[in-house]
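Researcher: We're teaching a course module on how sequence relates to structure. For the next exercise, students receive a sequence and then see the predicted structure as tokens, so they can try to spot secondary structure elements on their own. Here is the exercise chain.
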Amino acid sequence: MSPLVSAQGIVVRFGALTVLDGVDFDIRSGEATGVVGPNGAGKTTLLAALSGSLRVSAGAIRHEGKDVTGLDAARRCRLGIARSHQVPRPFGVMTVFENVLAAAMHGAGLPRAQAQECAIEALRLCGMLGVANRRAETLGLLDRKRLELTRALATNPAVLLLDEIGGGLTDGEASELIDTIRTLCAGGITVVWIEHIVHLLMQVAQRLVCMDAGRIIADGRPQAVLADRSVMTAYLGLPA
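Model: And here is the predicted structure for the students to work with:
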């Protein structure tokens, strides 16, 4: 079976700085993949390149075998590739429901009536119905992160790209988030999740990828990747 999304030799440069250096990365349908690596490894840049919010300098990105390298984030979102951001970016003066409705209408391109149904279902799945009528700017960190996830979910994604959604949460809050992500995975959504809190990833990920200096240095079963000497050296800071 061909990958749902495939990055082939992608390079991202900012002037003389190479942030991604010939990355090959396949996203397989139905799989939950965790992405780890030290700060500056290129993890967030990889998600930005896959989602279309950042143009690659070289290489190709394919969706279901078709080249989508030239498509922007809005068009890739319509194809089913959605992304959350490390720092939540809600429309603060809008209510939670309005934020999610906007994602369903403009991200997924749904007509209003259908978008309302989609928004309500996304709110239910993410445990946000109780705060649906609150202005987004009044939310605490956990609910802001839940809103970020809910908005991405409202675009009806096949692939959900999550960037450090567990950062800053207490253990109890993180456990609630894990339950939500497990529910989404069980519903057939493919997840790629960047996270520094490795024990959170280990509760969800079937596959683990480690990046360092713009390259993938290990890719496989989570326990095997964490035991890899190059990963221990680059990410865990152990001697080579």
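Model: If you want an answer key for the exercise: The mean pLDDT is 93. The beta strands are 5-14, 17-27, 32-36, 58-63, 66-67, 81-83, 159-163, 190-194, 207-212, 215-220.
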